[in-house]
Amino acid sequence: MKFIRNAGRDRALDRLTAVHAGGLARVATAELSVFGVEAFGDAIGTAGAVRMICSPQDVIAAGLLGDVADRARRNSLAGRNSAERVASWLNQSEVRIASRRLPQSLITVDGANEGVALVGGCALTTDGLGLAPTQPLSLTQLAEREEVDGLIAWFEDQWRSLEGSGGDKERLVSLFTEVGLT
Predict the structure, then answer these.
(1) What are the chain's domains?
(2) Strands 140-142 and 94-97, how do they pair?
(3) Model confidence, pTM
(4) According to DSSP H, which parts of 20-127 are helical?
(5) DSSP three-state, residue 119
(6) pLDDT value at position 52?
(7) Quick one: 139 exposed, middle or buried, by C-beta within 10 A (0-12, 13-18, 19+)?
(8) Which residues of the chain fall below pLDDT 50?
(9) Which of 15, 50, 85, 163 is the most buried (most CB within 10 A)?
C-alpha cells in the first residue's frame, strides 16, 4: 500500500479517473455528499457498472450537502441540479445499505488492463475525493495491483452478506431527490 496526500496533484479522484475504462466500480462508503457523488459519477462516467455499499440513511442524510468546505458549492445554487444528476446516476447503480455506519471507505475501479483501489478516508464526499481540504488525520492508501484483488474479494463478501435487504437503492435515491426538491 502507498499513502496518498489526497490533495493537490495527489488526489483520490485523479487516481480513479486515470484507470477507469468501462469496468466495474465498487464503493463501500462511510459518507456521501451530493457534490462528492456527482464528481465521482462524472469521473467514471456511465460506461461501467457501479456497486455501492453505504452507511445507513441517518448517517448519510447528515452530510448530504457536504461540510464547511462545501459552502461555496452550496451557495452556487447548483445543489438542486446536482442532486437530480446524482439521483439519476444512482438509479443506474446497484446499492446496498449496511445496518451500521461503515468505519472506513473502499473504492475499487477496474480498468482495461489494470485496477486501482483506495482504502481509508476516501468516502464519496468532496474531502474524501480530495476536492476540498481533507481532515488532517484522514489517511488514504492506494493499493498495489496484487492487493487490489484481495480488496475486491473483501467487497464482494460484504456485498453478498447484505443480499435480501431490498429497496436500498430506492431509499438512497429518495434522499437525493428530496434535496433536489428543496
Answers:
(1) 2-181 (3.30.870.10)
(2) unpaired
(3) 0.87
(4) 34-44, 57-62, 71-75, 79-91
(5) strand
(6) 92
(7) middle
(8) none
(9) 15
